[in-house]
Write a structure and sequence with these properties.
- The chain is an alpha/beta fold.
- Among the domains are: 51 residues, Translation initiation factor 3 (IF-3), N-terminal domain (Ubiquitin-like (UB roll), Roll), CATH 3.10.20; 89 residues, Translation initiation factor 3 (IF-3), C-terminal domain (Translation Initiation Factor IF3).
- A hairpin with a 2-residue loop joins strand 7 and strand 8.
- It is flat, with a radius of gyration of 38 Å.
Length: 227
């Protein structure tokens, strides 16, 4: 309940009504079927607004939820390329596809390639694979930390590139619309072809029926004349 009077009143359509007594503001809110809500309590006189309080609380909760969602820090996802450089190319592709999903969702991805035994003598093989992964994901990411060595492992960190990701999503949306349009056109052509076939079939049946129809009088005359 608002105990201070007068107040600075804002109408339901954000119009500035001015300074009025609280009782008068309450009367105006009741006539409009709305509530009188104090929106700035620290000012003098306090600022109040005529509004739907339930709707106001709902909108505040949605804004708060959106704010928490947008302020949530991106997670770091680590993807390990097996225990050796002898990982199957198909398994590498599975991990790259997984990384793409993480990047599209706004997460950073760290790839780690481990080396076993004498594989350390051929470090270039692991670095080459990391380079290929960077190239495969270059349409949605950028290198945040270049390859680094930790004992018998090399790792690289990729970060999502928002501009590139937005472009990929626009392209995917356009492709989906084009596919839907092509499907609709194909269905329309199939329907038109079906209608044309039915029309030809009906016309053929009509012609056959017309050839079978005979005139009884003409048949009788032909019979008498011996035709």
């Amino acid at each position: 309940m608002i105990r201070i009077s007068p107040i600075r009143l804002i109408g339901p359509n954000n119009e500035q009504i001015g300074v009025v007594e609280t009782s008068e503001a309450l009367r105006m809110a009741q006539e409009a079927g709305l509530d009188l809500v104090e929106v700035v309590a620290s000012s003098r006189p306090p600022v109040c607004k005529i509004m739907d309080y339930g709707k106001y609380k709902y909108e505040l909760s949605k804004k708060d939820q959106k704010s928490r969602s947008s302020s949530k820090q991106a997670e770091l996802k680590e993807i390990r390329l097996g225990r050796s450089v002898k990982i199957d190319p198909h398994d590498v592709k599975i991990r790259v596809d997984q990384a793409r999903r993480f990047l599209m969702d706004g997460h950073k991805v760290q790839f780690t390639q481990r080396f076993r035994g004498r594989e350390m003598m051929h470090k270039e093989l692991g670095l080459e694979r990391l380079s290929e992964i960077v190239e495969d994901l270059s349409d949605v990411s950028k290198v945040e930390i270049p390859p680094r060595w930790f004992g018998r492992a090399a790792s690289i960190m990729l970060a999502p590139d928002k501009v590139k990701i937005d472009a990929v999503r626009r392209k995917q949306s356009q492709e989906e619309r084009d596919a839907a349009s092509a499907q609709a056109d194909e269905a329309e052509r199939a329907q038109a072809a079906g209608d044309e076939h039915d029309a030809d079939h009906d016309d053929s049946k009509s012609k056959k029926a017309s050839r079978k129809v005979s005139n009884p009088v003409e048949d009788e005359i032909s019979s008498l004349l011996g035709e």
